[in-house]
Amino acid sequence: MTLGVLLGLVLSCLFLLSLWRQSSERRKLPPGPTPLPIIGNILQVDLKDISKSLKNLSKVYGPVFTLYLGRKPAVVLYGYESVKEALIDNGEEFAGRGSIPVFDKINKGLGIVFSNGRNWKAMRRFSLMALRNFGMGKRSIEDRVQEEARCLVEELRKTNGSPCDPTFILGCAPCNVICSIVFQNRFDYKDKDFLNLMNNLNKNVEILSTPWIQICNNFPAIIDYLPGRHRELLENFTFLKHYFLAKMIEHQESLDINNPRDFIDCFLIKMDQEKNNPKTEFTCENLIFSAGDLFAAGTETTSTTLRYSLLLLLKHPEVTAKVQKEIDHVIGRHRSPSMQDRSHMPYTDAVLHEIQRYIDLLPTSLPHAVTCDIKFRNYLIPKGTTVIASMSSVLHDDKEFPNPERFDPGHFLDENGKFKKSDYFVPFSTGKRICVGEGLARMELFLFLTTILQNFNLKSPVDLKDLDTSPVNNGFVSVPPEFQICFTPI
User: Fold this and answer.
1) Which of 16, 87, 302, 346 has its CA 20 to 30 A from that of 353?
2) Contacts for 1 with CB less than 8 Å, ≥ 6 apart
3) Dihedral sign, CA of 190, 194, 200, 203?
């Protein structure tokens, strides 16, 4: 027998073994398209618009189905009922974080967002306490956001009403809020360290939204052996790791345990309290990755939402005029907006909700995983199986939101013009893994946008009919197209 024949037999056996294993596995899982060996269903998914592919597949296989993205299965939840039943009604069982090989390579299961088990619970509990209880030091988080809103207005005044791309300025504002919470101090928008930090964060989100990263996550061998933009991503994260490590060392040298200044101080104090606990989760590495998670989650997502908000307000001047009328009536022109104002501004509240619903920022959120074997809708989902929850299918449900593809603040108003809540409003995900920074993000969106509209009229240098509001990338994050805007002082 020649070597070529032997090699052919070995490959054939491996191929048949792969088919047998997939077939045996699939019998217990929800239905789905037949996967090909090795590559699974990757050819049936548009990596530039995953949510559209999931919508089409749900029409064939129902609200719970299985996809093979590479060799491993993922259970997809499509529609409000299946998402609620899994993430809320069976929240503990669906509270795991699904494997994302690119991030696994970087974070090694540490931090807040990509961790699991005891580590995740400890980091999440601590971060929620830190963000909710005291906003770090003697100043509340609202004070910090209001200060940054005033700085943002001053930066926008420097444009002198000329057309500008708002991407950079709108990225600086939420990044500075996180800097204030994590490092104590905000930065000038021209500070070199700040610009380096911003550039890395911006690049990372851009790369993460490319189809190439989806391929890397589905075929992890690529990460170690092939060139590509994932290499740039890994380099950027290495830069951020060293940046946060340097900040941690600075804080250790000036720490006053009786007067914590920020998130890092609080974490260092907790580390000292648990220094004799061999099983403690409060380590230097966890501090670095937790700080990194706060930046990654709290900067780009908020700045992208703000940018998309201005594009939609440009496109719909009648909506903007109503919001400004409500601002004049409730707040006036001589004081800064505060969170207490929101409950007296139903139309503005509805507009902010509709912006987040319409843009569908994270179409599939981050993957979940089941923490144990679970019987779900008569299917057996083994422990560790990845679960993809389609947030698009909830935010764009046509029964809850008539004409969901249309931007309409009326989706969140009742017949009397009062604000109307909806259980389908899930831009921050839902269940046990709901975003830690939800409260901060909602605060920033309200205070930044109302402060901008209190001080400026928005004008488009191009005809409104030429303004496109369709997202450029719809893989990981829905990114708005580039546009120019004029901020004309009122």
Assistant:
1) 87
2) none
3) negative
The pair of structure tokens assigned to 178 is 């996180």
Question: With contact defined as beta carbons under 8 Å apart, do 218 and 50 qualify?
Answer: no
Q: What is the pLDDT of residue 475?
A: 64
Radius of gyration for the chain, computed over Cα atoms and rounded to the nearest angstrom? 24
Say what the pTM is.
0.89
Cβ atoms 397, 404 nearer than 8 A? yes
| C-alpha angle 12-15-21 in degrees, rounded to nearest 5 | 140
The pLDDT value recorded for residue 399 is 96
Q: How far apart are CA 45 and CA 54, in angstroms?
A: 8
pLDDT digits (tens, 9 = 90+) for 218-260: 788 778 777 878 888 888 888 888 999 999 999 999 999 988 8
Residue linked to tokens 């597949």: 57
- Predicted confidence band of residue 136 (pLDDT cuts 50, 70, 90): very low
Amino acid at site 365: S
Nearest Cα neighbor of 234 from 119, 108, 117 is 108
- How far, in Å, CA of 32 to CA of 279, rounded? 42
**Residue count of the chain:** 490
- Tokens representing 392 are 């698009």
The torsion defined by the Cα of 83, 209, 228 and 368, in degrees rounded to 10, comes to: -20
pLDDT at 80: 97
Higher confidence at residue 1 or residue 176? 176
Report the alpha-carbon distance of residue 325 to residue 90 in Å, rounded: 44
| Distant-in-sequence, close-in-space partners of 30: CB < 8 Å, separation ≥ 6 | 61, 62, 64, 65, 66, 75, 377, 379
